[in-house]
Amino acid sequence: MSAGVAPAVAGVPLHRALGLTDEELAAIAGKLGRGPNDLELAMFSVMWSEHCSYKSSRPLLRTLPTGDDDVVAGPGENAGVMRIGDGWAVAFKIESHNHPSAVEPYQGAATGVGGILRDIFAMGARPIAVLDALRFGDPADPRTRHLVKGVVRGVGGYGNCVGVPTVGGELVFDPSYQGNPLVNVMAIGLVREDAIMRAAAPGPGNLVILYGSATGRDGIGGASVLASATFGDQDPSKRPAVQVGDPFAEKLLIEATLEILAAGLAEGLSDLGAAGITCGVSETADRAGTGIRVDLDAIPRREPGMAPVEVLTSESQERMVVIARPERLPEIAAICARWGIPCAVIGRVTDDGDIAVIEGGLDTEGQPNPGARELARMPARALASEAIEFDRPAAPPPRRRRAPAPGIPETAGDGLPERGMDPGAVLLGLLGSPNLASRAWVAEQYDRHVQTNTVGGAGHGAAVLRLKGTRRALVATTDGNEAVSAIDPYLGAALSVAEAARNVSITGARPLGVTNCLNFGDPTRPEAFWQLREAVRGLGDACRALGLPVTGGNVSLYNEAPGSAIAPTPEIGIVGLLDDVTLLVGPAFTADGDVVLLAGATEPGLGGSAYAALAGLAAEDDLPGLDLGAEAAAQAFIRDAIAARSVTAAQDVSGGGLAVVLAEMAIWGGRGGRFRVAVASSPAVALFGESPSRIVLTVRPADVPAVRALASRRGVPLAELGIVGGPQLLVELVGEGATGAAEGRGVGVADALEVTLSDLRHAWEQGLPRALGEEA
Prior knowledge:
This protein is α+β, with helices and mostly antiparallel strands. It contains 25 helices and 28 strands. β17, α19 (526-546) and β18 (550-556) form a beta-alpha-beta unit.
């Protein structure tokens, strides 16, 4: 049997056809001490892809803060794991499935959910939640609507069937994603500290057991190849590379895996995702300093005539590899049979450090049968930890874009708000815009209550998951600021971390750690690599300032279609711990008469804001700054105030600014309020600016002095805005900047903002269905 690697086409050398450069071919030969054969070359090509090797980003990722007393497993493992007390730990990770979802949205998104769930239970954790962060182009475009519907159905279809709730996430529309949507999925699981499993293959002589679905031709080169090159969105040659998922098989796989681990039968465990068996065996062997002899003939196939390269690089879903002592095989086989899952011994752990592929079978001692042939032999470390790295050239763009993304108007035009427009109309326009409107159209397609742990979130702030049998809860959120990142990738990444941590803190929870998905363009372009480098720098600085370790994540590069690249998008996932779920604070106004306070200072700058996206940018509109010390203080203050049971509601100021936050809290609480907002620079900044480190909170009148004292202790400015109550939202502007003369544009914005609750709710609820053409 030949290796089955397609020969060079039209004079293109095989290594280039496989996506390897001449430099990489020379490096492979150097590691082998000889030229690779075709099968070895194909295995190196998937393992040295950007998706598997991180060859462009690995030097940058080493600069991130990863150490913390509570980190049990960090970068390099299938998922990060952090202690949460009483012998329990939380596993969490975010990953991308961007390129497959651009080709086949339903299966691309579905298998993205399946893959991240396997990363969680491969650590020994039971998955308890999924969050999805989705980004698309123009919602009025037919292709965008096709992608949105397919991706949302894929996430919901897989998660609902496998029995894991989808509890939160994001949905963002931006012109830069028109040719390349982003599908980032985060999963969370619970595990006992003493039951955490590692992806390693220790113990020469141990068995390598493959269990789960049979291996087919679907997904060959899927994530590893699709995510490592730029491609046209209509390229039919990419379609067969998208994996096909089966959530019912995944559910069986979860239960069988957790039973195997609970019985103490595994020495090591790994899921098979990108690069398939090649990745599973090479990474586990490399981590243990061992080798693996692979019995090619023993691998169960669901299609006849599969070539060795197809078997070894297939990314067929719902497969796991467990490393076990030989005497454990009958028990593992019995568990798999009970769950209706095929299993097979496909190799042996060796002490030579090599991955060897044998055709012709292995005997009972793991030695090649007489007449068997060795098709490939490579050091595991050469495929995995010693993969090539690049120090790419980086250069800022010659002329920095001022607009949040290509396609955003440069000056105020026919959109909102024009000079002299009623600020209430501006607010309704923002609330009904695709990026700020209700996400109910998406959330209602997901089962967020399965497992009965969900107590908050689903479009109204961070997701909250009770820990059954305790008073504690986990709080989780995702956040990414592509609008600011397009202008300043350092600031955009830092703001993303700050907002995600703030979203956790305003519930009363303490943020534990960060997982990140870095979505960027072609790293061989100096501008794109500069964006990545700056974003990693911003990510690291923000995490250090807020005391948050980075536990792992994913880098997705080559997010480009012909003629366009995405806005730099560092997607941040954070998990926090709420020690007493009875302290939980939500974002909705809860009682008439509560006093509404604003913690934090409002700073000038409308660049990157939702207001600027609708109105265009004026010459004076710059980005708001970020003081990480003030951010840390604001978050510590709100946690203090919630722990003192002095806060009845809290929401951070972000997209759309203060006016949108007040409107959301009013809509969710079914009660309005009367407010007076001080204007320092301009009415537009006061109402719609998105400067960070600000929190709107409500307190009972008797608790105001105590809350003021807590803010003073942390050095956080605190302003009284008004009182909850009534059927409308009324915001009066006061102060030196409240007159039109200080504005220079939008003179009439100094008028009072007055909108009924029913109008606010209608705009917010109808915005997304209208944008997608899904009105009832």
